[in-house]
Design goal:
heterotrimer; A alpha+beta (216); B mainly alpha (484); C mainly alpha (111); A: Cytochrome Bc1 Complex, Chain D, domain 2; two-stranded antiparallel ribbon; disordered C terminus; C: 111 residues; mainly alpha
Chain lengths: 216, 484, 111
C-alpha cells in the first residue's frame, strides 16, 4: 500500500475543492437567474400583470405560437363596476391575498397548483364555468365565500366550511382571484374550459354556444 | 456506571443528554403527524367527519407541520448526539442549548394550540403574525418564525463553537456550512407580498432548498458519522465520499429548484432547466447503487445494533424509490403539466419524506436508546425482538400501501381532471367521484391504519427495547461469532 | 418549448420513466456486482440491462414528444450517455478512493 499514491481525481482535497466550486457555481447561476426571474414576475412585469388588470376582462385562450393557453387582457370590465387606480387595486388584491393566507385556503385548495388536494385548483377559478354567467359571477363568488356551507358544491358531499369571511374580505378575495387568473403560467392548467365572457349578442342566434361547456 | 439495561442519563455525554430530549419530542410529534393524517384521510371518505370542528385544512396543516418539526427535532438531536464524539470536546454553551430546547418545544406547543383552537383569523397582517401564515409547510406564524431562526442560530453556535474548540473534522466542516445555509434559507420565506408568483418563488427557496439540498447534506453527514462509528470504515474514505456527495447533491439540487418553477408564473426557461436536472437526477442514484455494492463487497455487514442498521438500509431503498422512481415518473414538464397539484404529488411526497428522512431519524433514535441503556446488546435474538421487526414491517407495508393507493388516484386524477377536464371545478369533482379515486382513498385509509399500528409498536419498542438486557453490545471492531 | 403528453400516452410515460430508474439501478447493480465478485460473465447481463434502459429512454422520449425539439432531443442523448458511463466513472472513483491500504480491491481489479 505504501507505493500507491492516491490519484489526484480520487483524493480528498480534490473533492473538497470540487464540492466548494460546484456549490458556489450553482449558487452564482441561481442568483443570476433569480435577478431575471424576479424582474419578470414583479407585478406589471413581463409575466405577472399589474394589479389594475382587475379593471379589464381577462381571458385564457390558446396561443398557436406558444402551443398552450395564455391569459389575454380584454376590454375594460371593472370588478364590481368600479375602476381602480394601480394603488387602490394593489390594496384590494393584497387584502384578498391576506385573506387567503389567514383563512388557510392553501391547505384544501391549490393555488398555481401548490397546496392541498382536497378542493379544486384556484389558479383560474375566476374563469371557471361553474360561476354561471359573466353578469352574476362576482356576486355569486362573494356570496359563496361568505357562507359556503349550504351552497351546492358537488355530488360527493365535500363542502367548504364557513370561515367567517366578511363581505369586504370576500370582495377582496375575488379581486385577488381575478388578478391571479391573469398570471402567465406557461399553460397551466392545460385544456381549461373558460366561462363564456363574450358580450351579449345583439341577435338571439348565439344562445346555443355556451351550453356545451364541459360535462363529461 | 448504571446497570446494563436501565435507562440512565449517566450513560450519556452532555450533548447526548440534550439529544435524547429532542428525540423524545420528535417521536411524540411523529405520533401527532400520524394522528392528524388519519383524521384528514377519514375526511376524504366521510366529508362530514369533524366538519366545522377540525376541518380538513386544520388537520392537513398539522399533519405536514408536525412532520417538518419532528424531522427537524430529529436532525438537531442527531447532531447533538454525535457532536462531542466527533469534535472530541464537550459541547460549548450546552446550557444555552438546553434553554433553546425548552423554548422551541414550548413554542411548538403554543403554535399547535393556536392552530387547533383559533384556526383562522381576519384577512389582516396581524393574523399572519399571530395565527398562521397560510403558506403550505411554513404555516407557523411570524413570531414563531423569528423564534425558529433564533433557535437555529443557538444550535449553530453550539455546533460551530464546539468544533472550533475541539477538532474540526471534515464532517464537522460540512455540517457547519450546511447549518449556515439552513438558517439563512429560512429567511427567504419570512416576508409578505401580495404577489402570489413572487410569494411562491421565494417559498420554494425554503421548501426545495431545505428539503432537497440542505437536509440531504445533513443526512449525508449523519450517515458518514454512522459509517465511521458502526462499520469501522476509515475516515478519510468516508470524508472524501461526503465531499463527492455534497458536489452531486448541491450540483443537482440547487438548480433542480427549476422543476418547481414550471407553472407559477416564472419564465419559460425554467422548463428547460428543470427538465435538464430532472433528466440527470438518476445519475447520482446510479452512482449510489454502485458505491453501495462496492462497499458491501468489502465490509462484511456486522452490526452492533440491528434495528438501527435495518432502518439505515430502509433509508437507502426508501430514498431510491421515493425520490428516484416516484420523482422521475412525473417530473418532466411534458407530463408534469397534468400531474402537478394532484394526488401524484401526495404519493411521491409520502414515500420520499418517509424513505429519505423519517428512516434515518428513527435509526438514530435506536442508536440513542442503546447507549442510554448502558450500551446493551441489540444484535440477534433480543428479548421482545419481534417488536422492532413488526414495527418496521407495518410502517413500510402501510407506507407502500398508501403510496400505491395515492398513485392510482393520482393517475386517474391527472387524466380525468387535468387532461380531459382542464382542472375546472366540475372536472375536479368528477375525478374525485371516480371509482378509482374512491377505491384508492379506501385503500389509503386501510394502509393508514396499518401505518398507525406500526407507529404504536415503534413507540412501544423504543421505550422497552434493551430493558433488562444483561449482555453488553457486540463490538464491531472484533468480528464476533458468526451470525446470520 | 414543450409539447404536452397526449392522453393516450400517459401510461407509457409513467411506465417507461419508472423503467428508466429500475433498469438504471439493475444495470448499476449487475455492473458493480460483476466487478466486485470478479465474475466477468455477469457483464453481458449488465449491458443487456442497459439495453433495456436505453429502450425505456427512447420510449419515454417518444411518448413525451421529446424528439420534436432539438433541446429535448439533446437531453435524451445526454441521458443515454450519462446512464451508460456513470457506473464506470463511479467504479473508478470507488477504486481510487479506497486505493490506499485496501489490497483486496486491487487484487480483484487485476484479475
Amino acid at each position: 500500500m505504501s507505493e500507491t499514491q492516491t490519484l489526484w481525481w480520487a483524493s480528498e482535497s480534490f473533492w473538497k475543492k470540487m464540492a466548494v466550486w460546484i456549490t458556489a457555481g450553482s449558487a452564482v447561476v441561481l442568483i443570476f437567474l433569480t435577478f431575471d426571474t424576479v424582474n419578470q414576475i414583479t407585478a406589471g412585469g413581463k409575466r405577472v400583470p399589474p394589479y389594475s388588470v382587475i379593471n379589464n376582462r381577462i381571458d385564457y385562450v390558446f396561443d398557436e405560437k406558444r402551443n398552450y393557453q395564455v391569459p389575454v387582457i380584454g376590454p375594460e370590465e371593472p370588478l364590481f363596476g368600479k375602476v381602480l387606480n394601480e394603488a387602490e387595486a394593489m390594496a384590494l388584491v393584497s387584502r384578498g391575498k391576506l385573506t387567503t393566507q389567514a383563512k388557510n385556503c392553501m391547505n384544501c385548495h391549490t393555488l398555481l397548483g401548490n397546496g392541498a388536494y382536497y378542493a379544486p385548483d384556484l389558479t383560474k377559478s375566476w374563469l371557471d364555468p361553474m360561476w354561471g354567467s359573466k353578469e352574476t359571477r362576482e356576486e355569486t363568488m362573494v356570496a359563496f365565500l361568505m357562507d359556503p356551507t349550504d351552497k351546492l358544491h358537488n355530488t360527493i358531499g365535500r363542502r367548504m366550511p364557513n370561515l367567517g369571511i366578511t363581505e369586504e374580505e370576500a370582495r377582496a378575495t375575488v379581486a385577488f382571484l381575478k388578478w391571479m387568473s391573469a398570471i402567465d403560467t406557461n399553460g397551466f392548467p392545460g385544456n381549461f374550459p373558460t366561462i363564456d365572457q363574450s358580450d351579449p349578442a345583439p341577435a338571439p342566434e348565439s344562445v346555443s354556444a355556451p351550453t356545451e361547456t364541459p360535462a363529461l | 456506571m448504571a446497570a446494563l439495561g436501565t435507562l440512565d442519563s449517566a450513560n450519556l455525554n452532555g450533548g447526548q443528554k440534550l439529544a435524547v430530549k429532542f428525540f423524545t419530542v420528535a417521536i411524540a410529534l411523529f405520533g401527532a403527524q400520524v394522528l392528524f393524517g388519519m383524521l384528514a384521510g377519514i375526511q376524504y371518505l366521510n366529508p362530514d367527519f369533524l366538519f366545522g370542528v377540525l376541518d380538513f385544512s386544520v388537520n392537513r396543516m398539522l399533519h405536514i407541520n408536525a412532520m417538518v418539526v419532528w424531522l427537524l427535532f430529529g436532525f438537531i438531536g442527531a447532531v447533538y448526539w454525535l457532536l462531542e464524539d466527533e469534535s472530541g470536546t464537550p459541547v460549548a454553551g450546552l446550557g444555552l442549548g438546553n434553554l433553546m430546547f425548552w423554548v422551541f418545544t414550548l413554542a411548538v406547543v403554543v403554535v399547535v394550540l393556536v392552530y387547533l383552537l383559533v384556526q383562522v383569523g381576519p384577512g389582516e397582517l396581524k393574523s399572519i403574525w399571530l395565527i398562521n401564515e397560510g403558506r403550505e409547510y411554513i404555516e407557523a406564524p411570524r413570531w414563531a418564525d423569528i423564534g425558529i431562526v433564533v433557535c437555529v442560530l443557538i444550535f449553530f453556535y453550539n455546533v460551530a463553537a464546539t468544533f472550533m474548540k475541539g477538532r474540526f473534522t471534515g464532517i464537522g466542516g460540512v455540517l457547519v456550512l450546511d447549518l449556515v445555509a439552513l438558517a439563512g434559507l429560512y429567511l427567504a420565506g419570512m416576508w409578505y407580498t401580495p404577489n402570489i408568483s413572487m410569494d411562491q418563488h421565494w417559498w420554494w427557496w425554503v421548501i426545495h432548498l431545505w428539503v432537497e439540498a440542505t437536509w440531504e447534506v445533513l443526512v449525508g453527514c449523519l450517515l458518514a458519522y454512522g459509517l465511521v462509528k458502526t462499520m469501522g470504515v476509515r475516515r478519510r474514505i468516508v470524508e472524501t465520499w461526503l465531499y463527492i456527495e455534497v458536489a452531486l447533491l448541491f450540483g443537482s439540487g440547487i438548480l433542480g429548484l427549476g422543476h418547481h418553477y414550471f407553472w407559477i408564473g416564472t419564465p419559460e426557461y425554467w422548463l428547460a432547466i428543470g427538465g435538464f436536472f430532472s433528466a440527470l437526477e438518476p445519475i447520482p442514484l446510479v452512482a449510489m447503487v454502485v458505491h453501495a455494492v462496492f462497499d458491501a463487497g468489502h465490509h462484511k455487514l456486522k452490526s452492533s445494533n440491528n434495528p438501527a442498521l435495518a432502518w439505515m438500509i430502509a433509508q437507502a431503498f426508501g430514498n431510491f424509490f421515493g425520490a428516484g422512481v416516484w420523482g422521475f415518473m412525473h417530473t418532466l414538464p411534458q407530463i408534469n403539466l397534468y400531474t402537478h397539484g394532484t394526488q401524484w404529488t401526495a404519493s411521491h411526497g409520502h414515500l420520499a419524506f418517509f424513505g429519505a428522512y423519517a428512516t434515518i431519524v428513527i435509526a438514530f433514535v435506536y442508536l440513542a436508546v442503546q447507549k442510554w441503556r448502558g450500551n446493551v446488546w441489540m444484535s440477534g435474538d433480543m428479548a421482545g425482538g419481534w417488536k422492532w421487526k413488526w414495527a418496521i414491517f407495518l410502517l413500510h407495508a402501510g407506507m407502500i400501501g398508501m403510496t400505491m393507493a395515492l398513485l392510482v388516484t393520482g393517475y386517474e386524477q391527472s387524466q380525468v381532471e387535468r387532461a380531459i377536464g382542464g382542472s375546472s371545478w366540475i372536472a375536479y369533482f368528477e375525478a374525485q367521484a371516480h371509482v378509482w379515486f374512491v377505491q384508492g382513498m379506501n385503500w389509503r385509509m386501510v394502509s393508514g391504519w396499518m401505518f398507525a399500528t406500526g407507529f404504536v409498536l415503534l413507540a412501544w419498542d423504543l421505550m422497552t427495547i434493551g430493558k433488562r438486557e444483561t449482555r453488553p453490545a457486540r463490538s464491531v471492531e472484533v468480528p464476533a461469532a458468526a451470525m446470520a | 418549448m414543450i409539447e404536452p403528453v397526449e392522453l393516450a400516452n400517459f401510461f407509457t410515460v409513467f411506465f417507461s420513466a419508472a423503467s428508466v430508474i429500475l433498469f438504471g439501478a439493475g444495470y448499476a447493480l449487475l455492473f458493480a456486482w460483476s466487478r466486485v465478485s470478479g465474475r466477468p460473465r455477469l457483464m453481458p447481463l449488465a449491458y443487456a440491462t442497459y439495453l433495456g434502459l436505453a429502450v425505456s429512454v427512447l420510449v419515454l422520449g417518444n411518448a413525451a414528444n421529446l424528439f420534436n425539439n432539438g433541446y429535448w432531443t439533446f437531453i435524451v442523448g445526454l441521458m443515454l450517455v450519462g446512464y451508460l458511463v456513470a457506473p464506470h466513472a463511479v467504479w473508478h472513483l470507488c477504486v481510487g478512493t479506497h486505493a490506499e491500504g485496501d489490497e483486496a480491491i486491487k487484487v480483484s481489479q487485476q484479475r
